[in-house]
Design a protein that fits this description.
204 residues, mainly alpha, Membrane-bound Lytic Murein Transglycosylase D, Chain A, two-stranded antiparallel ribbon, 5 helices, 2 strands, rod-shaped
Length: 204
């Protein structure tokens, strides 16, 4: 404030310079009193302005403190947000790894299915081949069985009045063959009820 008064009295750029000039020029006591009152009023005005600025400075300090607190809270929020972003990035990374694992598993399952299909086709072919071989074997066995002559021994029970010649004619063999099979002579008398061995034939 002293600087202001000094400048107002000696600096021509300050409004107080007009007061100084009037004080020097005017020698009227009444006028000098008025000018003095005006100077005191100017000083009081300057003091009031300084006080207002000082109060505004105190308010500004309070505002700055409040703003600083808000900035601190905002910084804490940013730190919390950064932590959330890091967590989201970590989850996205884990999600990417999980997707890769699922993709690999899917490819493995598809490959396994392909191998199972190949094995199934091979098994079907083997079963068809085995069925064909079994059918051919059964056919061959049936043909062999049909081609093999029956060597089953058959007997004929002699009836009343039958002769060796009649029995031989019935089975398509000669009397000599009939006697050889039964180890008898051609003139041997055969009795009814006697069983004679006959050679294999188509008629019983």
């Amino acid at each position: 404030m002293e600087d202001f008064l000094d400048k107002s009295l000696y600096d021509p750029d300050y409004p107080g310079e007009g007061i100084k000039r009037h004080l020097k020029v005017s020698s009227d006591p009444k006028r000098q009193g008025k000018l003095l009152l005006l100077g005191v009023a100017g000083v009081l005005l300057v003091v009031a302005i300084i006080a207002i600025f000082f109060r505004a400075g105190n308010r500004s300090t309070e505002d700055l403190t409040s703003i600083k607190a808000q900035v601190d809270r905002f910084g804490e929020g940013l730190v919390h947000l950064k932590g959330m972003q890091d967590r989201v990035a970590s989850l996205e990374k884990h999600e990417g790894g999980l997707r890769q694992s699922i993709s690999k598993l899917d490819r493995s399952v598809k490959s396994l299915r392909g191998q199972l299909d190949k094995f199934s086709n091979k098994i079907d072919l083997m079963q068809k081949k085995l069925a064909s071989v079994a059918a051919n074997t059964e056919t061959s066995s049936s043909i062999e069985k049909k081609s093999i002559p029956t060597d089953k021994m058959r007997y004929h029970e002699v009836r009343l009045g039958e002769t060796l010649y009649q029995i031989g004619q019935k089975y398509g063999i000669s009397v000599g063959e009939l006697c050889r099979l039964n180890q008898i002579g051609p003139n041997q008398i055969i009795q009814p009820g006697h069983k004679l061995l006959v050679s294999p034939g188509l008629h019983q």
